[in-house]
Design a protein that fits this description.
Residues 229-312 form the Spore protein YkvP/CgeB glycosyl transferase-like domain. Pfam families: Glyco_trans_1_2. It is a single chain. The chain is α/β, with parallel strands linked by helices. The chain folds into 2 domains: 2-157 and 325-339, no CATH class; 159-324, Rossmann fold (3-Layer(aba) Sandwich), CATH 3.40.50. It has 14 helices and 11 strands. The strands form 2 sheets. The chain has a 6-stranded mixed beta sheet, with helices on one face. α7 (182-198) packs across α12 and α11 (255-262) crosses α13 (306-324).
């Protein structure tokens, strides 16, 4: 059996998780993967770089890991679904699909984060298809034991984060600011300030990734660049007990949230605005907040009730094993393909 995976963009880290899942399932489902760079998909799907086209026989699936519904209209989205069998969407909101002709084709994909594996075609430099600077960056990532090495982001690295939980409390909230997203930026600045002033006696890494915007708006809240490098950040996830995150761009559930689930952490987050497959509930898998005051209260609740924190950690590890591990996430796609 041959499964064809076509991608429109060599630099989509969003899509890496999906191809990793297909690669890890090859032996179980006994198929061969064929890859093709297909930039014309951008025209068909409104310049969405974070999609993959999956072909098996006469079946066609699109997997969309974009942050939101970044299209002109739902009518345009509906028209995109005419020439395919299934559409798996990371940012899935069922209420948006009620009046679509093709609503039965749309399925929730689940949480998204950057995870890769050996032989993932998106790891390749993409010579001539990316700016030279980007191709060279990807080439450097093949060097082992550096902060950016691809091997730092293999599946087993994330699963190790859930093992040997730390003995001491530590709060983690590393975030960034975005141009032209004033509401999100204000929320994040208020939360960082509140956490720093409230939890002075609790070990905490809380602040912003360095950027021109952060230097302008809150230079006193910028973290050292060594702390915020991705590999070092994952080490901090492992050593933390309570991890905080906010809503991502376009109301998305950010990568940090998925990484926290994979690591089996107690999570404090703004309410999730998109739907996930399986059982994943507020007050069980995470505590929600709406402003800096309720963010502080949620953290205090987890600090005061270790049993709640432990139960949340266990539930998140279970969810990872049942729905989020890359090969498990892709099984829901494969089963539709193979049984159809």
């Amino acid at each position: 059996m041959i499964i064809k995976i076509n991608y429109p963009y060599y630099n989509s880290e969003h899509s890496s998780q999906i191809i990793t899942g297909f690669i890890l399932n090859k032996d179980k489902y006994d198929y061969t993967l064929r890859y093709q760079y297909k930039p014309e998909l951008l025209n068909e799907f409104h310049n969405n770089k974070n999609i993959l086209e999956i072909l098996l026989g006469d079946k066609r699936i699109i997997i969309d890991t974009d942050d939101g519904y970044n299209i002109a209209s739902l009518e345009d989205f509906d028209n995109c679904l005419d020439n395919l069998d299934y559409y798996f969407k990371r940012s899935f909101r069922s209420s948006y699909h009620t009046d679509l002709r093709n609503q039965s084709k749309i399925y929730p994909l689940g949480l998204n984060y950057y995870v890769t594996c050996k032989d993932n075609p998106l790891n390749k430099p993409g010579w001539g298809r990316l700016p030279l600077k980007d191709s060279l960056k990807k080439l450097v990532r093949y060097i082992p034991k550096t902060n950016v090495s691809y091997s730092n982001f293999y599946k087993n690295r994330f699963e190790l984060l859930a093992k040997n939980p730390p003995d001491k409390e530590q709060i983690l909230f590393i975030t960034r600011l975005w141009d032209n997203h004033d509401i999100e930026n204000t929320m994040r600045i208020n939360c960082v300030q509140a956490l720093r002033s409230t939890f002075k006696d609790t070990p905490m890494i809380c602040g912003f990734i360095n950027s021109p915007l952060a230097q302008k708006l809150c230079p006193e809240l910028i973290l050292d660049q060594n702390i915020t490098k991705k590999n070092n950040y994952l080490n901090l996830v492992q050593s933390s007990t309570i991890c905080v995150t906010t809503t991502g761009l376009y109301d998305s559930i950010g990568w940090k949230f998925a990484e926290y689930v994979a690591a089996g952490k107690a999570i404090v987050s703004e309410p999730l605005l998109y739907e996930l497959p399986g059982k994943f509930n507020e007050n069980e898998n995470y505590l929600s907040f709406h402003d800096s005051k309720t963010c502080v209260k949620a953290i205090e609740q987890l600090l005061n009730y270790p049993s709640l924190r432990k139960k949340m950690s266990d539930l998140n590890i279970t969810y990872y094993n049942n729905h989020l591990a890359p090969e498990i996430l892709i099984e829901s796609v494969l089963q539709l393909f193979i049984k159809s």
